[in-house]
Amino acid sequence: MIKNLKSLFITTEDEKPLQQGKNQNAKSSSPDTPKMVTQESPKPVDNAILDRLLQAIEDNNQSGFDYLEYRRSLKSLAALPMDETVKFQSAYATASTMGVTLEKLLASIDFYRKVLHNEEENFKKASKEQFSINVEGKLKEKENINSVINEKSLKIQKLTEEIRKHQSEMEELTKVIQAGEVKIKETTENFERALQLLLSQMDQDAEKLKNYIK
Length: 214
Fold this sequence. Notes:
214 residues; 6 helices; mainly alpha
């Protein structure tokens, strides 16, 4: 289920590790359980887009013990009072008993990255089509109506009423265009945030696997 898959990448407050001693009450410099780390953003990740990306991962879930199962192992260690290195190594030890190697885990991360990049390409294609329909197409309509206005303006008073009608149509089209541009921009930004959220975590896990697992 998407909810279960999302929990592998999103850490809630009640899932933070327990403290390892009195000295950590004043300072918590050791890393917490693996969780999403992204650049600061004034807007949250769009859940619908995040679910869409996670669904793509779920639909392409590899058989056997792979990166997703490894993250489940890490998740099970989330509340334990141990540093991040030990957690990664402990989860890897579990994976090793099933014949999983560091190379296989990194290859699995690369596989899911490709799944996400494929979703990115599909999104860009769909976004381009929507831009063509809702913005470029409307701009052409606006240009055509403007030409009609210029022509009929030469007929002075007789066509004044008709010109006003077309001007009103232009104003409505401008509103449609502006709304279309805002929606497409917002959706694109939401997609990029969701995409970077997942890609950033995968990059971090890949780097940590390389550093922690020798």
